[in-house]
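User: We ran a pulldown and think these components assemble together. Before we commit to crystallization trials, I'd like a predicted model of the whole complex to look at. Sequences follow.
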Amino acid sequence: NAGVTQTPKFQVLKTGQSMTLQCAQDMNHNSMYWYRQDPGMGLRLIYYSASEGTTDKGEVPNGYNVSRLNKREFSLRLESAAPSQTSVYFCASSYRTTNEKLFFGSGTQLSVL
Amino acid sequence: RKEVEQDPGPFNVPEGATVAFNCTYSNSASQSFFWYRQDCRKEPKLLMSVYSSGNEDGRFTAQLNRASQYISLLIRDSKLSDSATYLCVVNGGRSSYKLIFGSGTRLLVRP
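Assistant: Here's a predicted model for the assembly, 224 residues in total across the polymer chains.
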């Protein structure tokens, strides 16, 4: 049972480049999330998807877009990367949206030069 | 004021020690509380939920004080393997989807 699989693990971009972070879960969870983690700060929610077919903005959505491709997959896209988007990105999932244990992927270390 | 505040530490304790962390939260409507553990360069993992009456899981005890809006985590008989960052997590309100993460308290357990 793989849980939450996130790719890539590392990525270096130049300012202005675009990329998509992929996330898939095999636990039949309804809700999926994208967080970013910066030094000295807690994880901050970028976007979430309460269920297949829905997506909503979190705390820090600017500069990102998401796609809930199906129940298993939730991707995060940076259309024009900026140095401020240098961070560690975590995908997570839960059975329902609220008050539930989150299962996290292993993270993507992204550097934007 | 941050929505969830934690002392960043590090707390440096010898093996076998008892150590406690506190976390304060600002939203009195928060209903759900958790402690997550995060090892260096790894993903967070749920350590335990925090219930109103307090709860214990082996060497770990979590307590909630709604009146003062803080939760605590007590670790007894610390092990080297307990070295990690402990994240306090609170939901954003009665019907909120949002989980708010503290920036974490780092624990170092030395031999």
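Chain B has no helices and eleven strands. That may be worth checking against your pulldown data before setting up trials.

User: Thanks, that helps.
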